[in-house]
Amino acid sequence: MTKIFVTGGAGYIGSHVVKLLGQKGYEVMVYDNLSTGNQDSVLYGKLMKGDILDFESIKTAMADFQPDAVMHFAAKIIVPESVAEPLKYYENNVYGAVNVIKAMKECKADKFIFSSTAAVYGEPKEMPLSEDMPLSPVNPYGRSKAMVERVLEDFSKARDFRYVSLRYFNVAGADPEGRIGETKKDATHLITMCVRTACGKRDKMYVYGTDYPTPDGTCIRDYIHVMDLADAHVLALEYLLEGGKGDVFNCGYGQGYSVQQVVDAAKRVTGVGFPVEYAPRRPGDPPELVADSTKIKQKLGWKPKYNDLGFIIKTAWEWEKKIL
């Protein structure tokens, strides 16, 4: 049985990937410090509590498991926090990733799937974004991810080591079967905040910035359902297991929605006219990020199943109502 070691596998995205891996018959070991993850979200495999900043711990865990491939999700992801506390982001996201790669080197694991981000592109002038566009991140979160991409590129040239970096756009929604979803109490994803406000878990939600150079003045993003993203990870894994060379892929639908459009859609789907407060821009937020996903469709055969904003919001809404 093929063994997959998953850092951050108890978190929002990681747990959905673990679910799909388990359903497809992979043997999974989840390594997570549970700072933002939830052990109840790990539906398959074994869970070991540990931190990627503790090299000896992760080296021991990986050596005992002897994985065929590693998927790395254990990162800090909140853009405004990265601006306020950059060292925390460089330490966890860069040094932590290097620890994971070093542990792989020790136990001779040579296939790595990296959780990257569209934030590596910064504030590009052209849309949609293709993988060959220059990287120019504008916040420490994006820079930390771009640094790890460079590390992977350099290390793969020096060793027998192959990787896929998946550059996520805005991940949203929940498992359509209702078994798992976002559990982090201070989650900052827009759709999560919308449905939590509709549920009454928040008094109101904030829209940051109404003066961007977009049709309605709010930021435009490409929203991808978390299970379509999970499917992209499994396809990337299969690609590496079959001998594929290191590569980078965007994960998005190529359709942008403004923050205001998402808020309006959430009100329609939930049937709740929840309160919204408009606030100034947050530091580090680009006006628009929309994916060109041609490459992943052509090279990995990715076929999204849930490219529908209403459905994405509905799955998030059903999950939040379930865990009231």
TrEMBL record:
* The protein's Enzyme Commission number: 5.1.3.2
Superkingdom = Bacteria
Q: Which residues cross the membrane?
A: none
> Which residues belong to the signal peptide in this entry?
none
Q: How does it assemble?
A: Homodimer.
Q: Which family does it belong to?
A: Belongs to the NAD(P)-dependent epimerase/dehydratase family.
Protein name, entry field: UDP-glucose 4-epimerase
The source organism is: Biomaibacter acetigenes
